[in-house]
Sequence to fold (268 residues):
Amino acid sequence: MLRSNSGFEHEYSEGVLYVRLWGEIDHHGAATLRGDIDSLIYEKRPQRLLLDLSGVGFMDSSGLGLIMGRYSLVGELGGSMAILDPTEPIVKILNLAGIKRIIAIEKTKEAKKK
Amino acid sequence: MRNKGFSSVVTNEMKLKLPSCSVNEGVARAVVAAFCAQLDPAASELADIKCAVSEAVTNCIVHAYRDSVGWIYITVKILEGGGVRVEVRDRGCGIADVRAARRPLFTTDPSGERSGMGFTVMENFMDILRVRSKPGKGTNVVMFKRLSRRGENT
Fold:
């Protein structure tokens, strides 16, 4: 397996799974991210998944698949999901796909300060 | 006119040939972006080109050469007047119905969690998208984008 240029950190507390993705999200990195995030979702069974995209500098349509797939899985398990702090280029592709009609996109206080 | 508003005069040109390994998605978009940087484009324009190249190259890897590894040929031309022409070509399986493939959410691979938005991204992030394909022969994607010069970005 060649080095991936993406990854994530996570925290879990009281039903909320917080996942902060970083790097460039493309087809190459998406499979690993998908597997690792899904393991966490199955393990924690969160009521809410927060997907922080503030550290993602690049994302193509593979990222859309990644987001929609996690949204479906969390929903199947009875939870909800929100996207936090996407950067400008990421907002552009999210809007193109009409993601905000399906998943809430939220700005946290920290992102507003920048 | 064939390529509306784009000069046919080429001022610089680059060719890149990569095997269809997924790690090369990032390589391809980084190299194309580095080459386009000589036009001093806005960050958002460069981001658009990177995304479009990533989609075209991913299509080659996921669809054109789905059961094999083949060459992906990328040609980038800087056009007089500040335009860029990007061509991504493969000798893979080809697309039977290009019109259907270009529709949003179309995918031949629903199991793989593909969003079906690849061509839609290319179409929206670039100014012109041309797709030619022959089943069994391969696919040729040509994209044009006009770049604003520094000082004209706002």
Notes: The interface with chain B takes residues 2-3, 5, 24, 26-28, 30, 34, 58-62, 64-66, 68-69, 88-89, 92-93, 96-97 of chain A (CB under 8 Å). The beta strands of chain A are 6-13, 16-25, 48-59, 80-84, 104-106.
